[in-house]
Amino acid sequence: MKAIRFGRAAAVLSIAALALTACGSDNPTGSPEAAGGDAAVSGTLSGAGASSQDAAMQAWIAGFSAANSGANVQYSPDGSGAGRDAFLAGGVQFAGSDAFLDEEEWEQAKQICGPEGAMNIPVYVSPIAVAFNLEGVKELNLDAETIAKVFRGEITKWNDEAIASQNEGVTLPDTAITVVHRADESGTTENFTEYLHAAAAKVWTDEADGAWPGGLGGENAQGTSGVVSTTSSTNGAITYADASAVGDLGTVKVKVGEEYVAYTPEAAAKAVDAATPVEGRSETDMSLQLNRDTTESGAYPIVLVSYHIYCSSYKDQGTANLVKAFGNYVISEEGQNTAQESAGSAPISDTLREEAKAAIDSIKVAS
Amino acid sequence: MSNTLTEGGAKGRAGDKVFSNLTLLAGCLILLVLFAVAVFLLVQALPAFTADPAKVTGGEGFWSYIWPILIGTLVAAGIALLIATPIGIGVALFISHFAPRRLAQSLGYVVDLLAAIPSVVYGAWGVAVLAPALVPVYEWLAANAGWIPIFAGPASQTGKTMLTAGIVLSVMILPIITSLSREIFLQTPKLHEEAALAMGATRWEMIRMAVFPFARAGVVSAVMLGLGRALGETMAVALVLSGGILTASLIQSGNQTIAAEIALNFPEAFGLRLAELIAAGLVLFVITLAVNMIARWIISRHKEFSGAN
Amino acid sequence: MPQLTTTTPPAPAPVKRSTLTKNQLPGWAMWAVLAGSLILGAALSSLIGFHIATWALFSALIYVAAGYFVTLSVEGARKAKDRFATNLVYAAFIVALLPLVSVIVTVLAKGIPGLTPHLLYYSMNGMTGTVDNETVANGTPVIGGVYHGIVGTLLITTWATIISVPIGLLTAVYLVEYSKGGTLARAITFFVDVMTGIPSIVAGLFAAAFFGLVFGPGTRTGFVAAVALSVLMIPVVVRSTEEMLKIVPNELREASYALGVRKWRTILKVVVPTAISGIASGVTLAIARVIGETAPLLVTAGFVNSINWNVFGGWMATLPTFIYRQLMNPTSPTNTDPSAQRAWAAALILIIFVMLLNLVARLIARIFAPKSGR
């Protein structure tokens, strides 16, 4: 008797499961079927790498496949290091990375990509906000040295003289500062510590690194969403995170030259334009050395630049065409705007775009 | 039916041969896979052992990098086992010998189910629900039991501590221990139990005299499986623990486990760092080996019963 | 419960009670103790600032202690010990229930709002942060679903099960029935234990490296993931099956041999069916162990937003990777709520799957298990 009842329940459930698996739709947004587009590229392009540009990547993939029905792009956000490794092993056709290939990797890439090696194209620029949770305070002015001291735990109270002197008229509570940093190794941490080391070298003596200096205390959490939610739930907490994710936390205006600059897409793009190219690479390579201690007016120096790494030549025509089409879409005005809308990144400037376009157009088939 | 069963002669003998060889093959395949995994780990980890000590994370060589997180791993797993073993066995006993039959069945079902909740969910629960709830407890402990080093203050304000991680782990392995122990308890020969009761034993005496001796090896097995999961658990610990350098206090942020260290740093690792992390995985592997040797030794000392041999 | 009237010393001369219930606490006694402990617990708790948790804790401690001493004074030491153990077992059960219920309530509360037909029938293909931003701005229902993840999880888990259950089952049979405790058997048992300790990410890396060697670098398919999961599943299957086969009474085997049945038929028709309930439970547990794995899947199966039915070609999404991705890298970094909603709903679906699986396992056990008195 019992077995029968049991069996019936199981039957009903398995039929429901069958019905579920029988039909599903790949088109949740209800967008019209892709019309094919004029660029007749097809095939599958695989990429792997940084999770920072993942949200933008999803937007690019969606936009690109809408224009090219035969093309399929997949991206696995395993992390920059894993992405570069996979690229150098020939496992994926392009990598997304928060850091450009270093010298050793650069040489290694020649085995996969032919004598001219790979190219690093900056495609994703995102300001890193210094965000805090302090009741009644939405904005603070701080210079690099103060920020460094706060994150080192040398300034422990929000009403410390160093903070108060830069923010006249703001009532600062006597709350303890809780520093929240990333638990995982990340490009965000690397760019933030690089800024601190360059702009406040006396206070921040640690070299730039993707991992937070081990000796410093403070709370930590995994991922951008982790630090943001920990900060949101702890009064007096301060953290650094991708500007698009900080929500309604208070943010810091950073002192550049003589003025305090808030993070904006424009200010971030300006800082990238002020960067110098890395020496000793091929003509098409666009690796950038950011000037963190820049005094240029209106530039916001704490930015994360994420690259796409492509080969300068691919084995077959189809792949080369596909890479070219995708790369050009990503850096195009449309691509950059889509990324801004959905991921909150800063579009690259026109000068950068022209340079990148020339580089991508030079991609050819290995002879 | 009995005809097919007793069908003798060459065909039956061949069946015997084929079947026994099949089982042997399966066993050897497992050894082969494990061997391959070990070789893979060794090859990939080698650079970490041979590298210039100054280049390894921490700047003092691989071993001084690994031992704090090794201790963290053992502590986390230890806390988890300390909590989950007695409770798990208690729950298994409750389901097998105390609860009303009808209730027991659905309870067993629910417990099996809990083993299936993905560790990400346990982690998210630990951060969102458990950690904040434990903050007042930690503050109380720091104030009243702070003289014990493991409860030294100041207590963490987020509750993301080693003790919380241990508790989350114990919740995760509880279903494993309970589920297997329950099956073993249920298999205790009815005759033994009834004999004990007929002699006038109370229920507890019956359990001690009939159920426990029968189930000992199986329960140790269940606990070891739980330990395996506790040692290797990554996501939950990575989410719950606010890791850092080795600290004696369990109610401050700090400490780290090997598995979480791997998970947190693996995505951005390359070259030597990758080798370090895989070497850390190898160390975890060796610990499991050691723990299992100890468990085997315990079981072999109590080998008075066994069904098959 | 048998009464031990003969072993207790005769009481002086209470005439009114029957000899059978002599020295036995009346039924209401324990309830009275419970009520007393609750009151006392409340009093103690309010001494240090009343809180429901401390109240429950103190009451429980007092109840267990009082139960022991009350029984000790009336019914004797053996009964008192029994009462004490019983209370502890009940306490263990309640303590275990608390976090588990909390986990389930959390998943239900956060998962049910997102569990819509749309979520079940659609993939995330073409979804961008813009869509989520509009959803939040306009207050429209969240779109984008987990269909691709459901397909991936079902296929990959099925393949992992197909690989690991036969291997695990046969190995366990070898260990229990054929090995006679030889060196090889001891080695296998030992190394199976070791295998339970392989960190899941290592299993994933191993499978990725292995397939990379054989089929060229960067081979990521559902099948690679299934192999990685098998490495994690096999030890659990072997371990639990071995335990279950061991406790099949030898009498059954001997009876079968005595009837002239061949060993392999005895194993297949007598030994395994007797243990099938436990084996099914173990296999379910093994599947449950791997169905929620995230790390090894990311490095072996990749991640996509569209539906892929082919385990041998192309990347695949699964429910755990979907959950992880939605929580860690929300589709729209500015508005994470839709992503969180999808993630929790996906977690709920995953749990429902395992529930179904459990039902099926029990059904199988019920069909194949021999009739028994239990």
UniProtKB/TrEMBL annotation, chain A:
Pfam families for this protein: PBP_like_2 (PF12849)
A cellular-component GO term for this protein: ATP-binding cassette (ABC) transporter complex
Keyword Lyase: no
Signal peptide: 1-24
A molecular-function term among this protein's GO annotations: phosphate ion binding
PROSITE patterns assigned to the protein according to its UniProt record, in alphabetical order: PROKAR_LIPOPROTEIN (PS51257)
BP-aspect Gene Ontology terms: phosphate ion transmembrane transport
Record keywords, A-Z: Phosphate transport, Signal, Transport
Domain PBP: 37-334
UniProt-listed CDD domains: PBP2_PstS
Entry annotated with the keyword Isomerase: no
InterPro entries, per database record: ABC_phos-bd_PstS, PBP_domain, Phosphate-bind_PstS
Family stated for the protein in its record: Belongs to the PstS family.
The protein's name in its UniProt record: Phosphate-binding protein
Organism, scientific name: Arthrobacter mobilis
TrEMBL record, chain B:
Membrane topology listed for this record: Multi-pass membrane protein
Residues annotated as transmembrane: 21-45, 65-95, 107-131, 162-181, 206-227, 274-295
Gene Ontology terms for molecular function: phosphate transmembrane transporter activity
CDD domains referenced in this protein's UniProt entry, alphabetically: TM_PBP2
UniProt cross-references to Gene3D superfamilies, sorted A to Z: MetI-like
Chain segments annotated as coiled-coil in the UniProt record: none
GO cellular component terms attached to this protein's record: plasma membrane
Leader sequence residues: none
InterPro entries per record: MetI-like, MetI-like_sf, Phosphate_PstC, Phosphate_Transport_Permease
One of the GO BP terms on file: phosphate ion transport
Main location: membrane
Cellular localization per UniProt: Cell membrane
Start and end residues of each ABC transmembrane type-1 domain: 70-295
Top-rank taxon: Bacteria
Pfam families for this protein: BPD_transp_1
Keywords (A to Z) from UniProt: Cell membrane, Membrane, Phosphate transport, Transmembrane, Transmembrane helix, Transport
Family to which the UniProt record says this protein belongs: Belongs to the binding-protein-dependent transport system permease family. CysTW subfamily.
Function of the protein: Part of the binding-protein-dependent transport system for phosphate; probably responsible for the translocation of the substrate across the membrane.
Protein's name according to its UniProt entry: Phosphate transport system permease protein
Species of provenance: Arthrobacter mobilis
Lineage: Bacteria, Bacillati, Actinomycetota, Actinomycetes, Micrococcales
Originating gene: pstC
